[in-house]
Amino acid sequence: MAKPRIIIVGAGPSGTRAAEACVAAGIRPIVIDEGRRDGGQIYRRQPDNFTRPYEKLYGTEAGRAKALHETFDGLKGAIDYRPETLVWNIAAGQLWTASGTVQEAIPFDALLLCTGATDRLMPVKGWNLAGAYSLGGSQVALKSQAVSIGHKVLFMGSGPLLYLVASQYVEAGADVAAVLDTSPFSARLKALPDLLAMPSVLWNGVALTRTLKRAGVTVQHGVTPVEIMGDVESGVDGVRFRTASGREETIACDAVAMGYHLRPETQLADLARCAFAFDPGTRQWLPERDGDGRASVAGVYLAGDGAKILGARSAEASGRLAALAALVDLGLSVDKGEMASLRGDVANYAKFARGLAKAFPWPVEQAAKLPDDAILCRCEGVTAGDLRVVMRETGAKEANRAKAFSRVGMGRCQGRYCGLAAAELIAAEAGVPVEQVGRLRGQAPVKPLTIAIGEE
Amino acid sequence: MGPSMNGASDVIIVGGGLMGSSAALFLRGHGLSVTLLETDLIGRQASGTNFGNVRRQGRGFHQLPLANRAIAIWRKSRELLGADVEYLQSGHIRVCYRERPELVGAMEEYADKARLEGLDLELLSGNALRDKFPFFGPDVLAGSYSPTDGHANPRLAAPAFARAAQKLGAVVHENTKIIDAQKLGEDFIVTAADGRTFRAPILLVTAGAWGNALSSQFGEPVPIVPRGPNMSVTEPVPYAIHPAVGVMTPLEEETVYFRQVARGNIVLGGSTRGPSFPDQYRAYVEPQNTLSQLKHIRRLAPQLGKLNIIRVWSGIEGYLPDSQPVMGPSATTSGLYYAFGFSGSGFQIGPGVGETMAEIIAKGATDIPMAPYDIARFAQA
């Protein structure tokens, strides 16, 4: 009998560990990744001709990054690795890929989606100006190209990545204007019992804050962003915000990095027709899965931050666990004791993730209060006011309906960046719980696809 | 009054697409009370997911009077609806390829006959064609240009008609799935899945791919097949392509079309249609159909190969074997009317269908030729 064909999408922490488990079981998986090199976002590898040391690139996570990269390098002869390849659709047991204009349809017996995450963004007036980046984007600039997004960079939003990227900028010698956290400091104290599930990670977080303090960077908690200031010609020139005590202040800068923790990249699970459920803790719709990563569709497995944001360490464990589950389902023998132990690890990471969600809450009220003249959907240039007018005129209260009438979420990102905030705005405007607003239906292609695809 | 009595009106319309919504609006114009029942949301399937061609060119000659009636409504849609459905009279061009020179003769013949029905077409070939439309590829031989056709936004059209009807007093119930319809005495009793009932002496079925479920209840099954359009859209680029463009060819796979909206996105459609699933209210774009569409688009307009598509979509359309809709009165039941099964080409004529059905119901007659659409053509001998 031919060996089963396993396809892993994503070569970050979960994809790498999944591939490792498949190879150990004697299977040569196909590993498809959009990136030019493995490592994913968090352990993104620098271009070949760059030689910065691991400690400089990954700080406290240098050891993990190195171990993961070495594992992947060691697997290269034993896997069918396809970098710079986009999976643009899934249908009838086949993945449809594009690499440049080369198109391929690849059948699979098991599909492991290790698709990772992007920033969760909360629109603010002026976030469409040149010089406004996501935290992830600002980190990519630094990690991949060793450049800063500006001369004087302000970090705004919430979540662990806010402190991590700000301190990475400080250590790289950049001028950090301030770190503005929308979460009140008290939230962090309330979250401590859950955060203690992973004391070493908690300690790393404390160390980041110390780095910022030592560098003399202003860190403010409980702020409310008002506006990213500047103009279309010259881009960002400052940030206006309200302090925790309600005073309005302005800080000059020429670039802003913003983000509110992360959101999973679930479009492929959607195209694979997996069932989704609303997760009240994160206020996001997530693909359903069992404790080992099995999706509602037979043969599809979900792991890492692409399924739910539990962090890079959890991604390594859940990637391996999902691969073991796939191997079991394909009739291969695996170590059941290891699976039980991995389940325990993931449960502990989940507790820590709950703590993070409490410590750095998603400021939903900002979406509700977004001023009418602020851009909500950057791809299509739709303002909050445009959406409110459409809702009043058409009675649309559901995400896809509001999209059809207003174009919010209809552009090239398909709502990946504005969809969560738009749902909160719709919920507030309609006076319904956000889960009633529903979720945007994903459509192929997952990312823009060239019309020249398949050209000879 | 009990809940079973709250649905009494002069006319019940089952199916809230463009046909049902526009019929509701025009029936109000005749002073009849209307209840419009939609199983999901207004205009979500065929009416909302089609290409958006407001095209008379290429229709059968018997359909041109209806199409002419419709174009008059599209032209005044902004005033009529109090909403912008992005109707643009920017022209439509149908082209043929060098390997089928015989189609030039067919285009000329069509133009001669269409002129008699009030549709003026201009035939262009060679340099004249490429001077005017430089985006065409070298395979394109000739084209037939209709300056008075154009396009509109399907996502906006049917809901705008339904809202206009509502403003004039029509009652619209969305999320109302009809599971039974029968005539008791003088009235039709229409029952929803949740038990609500609606009553009226006249019933108009505009239920698209679902129409057969109701016509069968009255002894008039039709061989309708659900399919889904194959649609894509590019990222926005500067507005440069004014007419909607389509290919004249006997092969379905080669039949592609595109139009650019004023915002800049180019909507691509055609090549092989996909399956659709009326019971699930979903239609999926098959990846191989996307690829076939893009291949034929590159042949038609090679420069488009430099762009990306950002989204694909489909919807549920009902196709009849002769590609003509079922439209007009029932052959078995008085007071029962149909307008469904538009076979992938109902968008342009939609408002004309609504106005004509309202006229037939309110006045008992119309000048529009209706014989080709008679449901009796499917009656088993």
Automatic annotation (TrEMBL), chain A:
One of its GO terms (molecular function) is oxidoreductase activity. This is FAD/NAD(P)-binding oxidoreductase. Residues 5-310 form the FAD/NAD(P)-binding domain. Keywords: Oxidoreductase. Coiled coil: none annotated. Signal peptide: none annotated. The keyword DNA repair does not apply. InterPro entries: BFD-like_2Fe2S-bd_dom (IPR007419), BFD-like_2Fe2S-bd_dom_sf (IPR041854), FAD/NAD-bd_sf (IPR036188), FAD/NAD-binding_dom (IPR023753), Metab_Enz_Cyan_OpOx_G3PDH (IPR051691), Opine_Oxase_asu/HCN_bsu (IPR017224). It comes from Sphingobium limneticum. Residues 375-427 form the BFD-like [2Fe-2S]-binding domain.
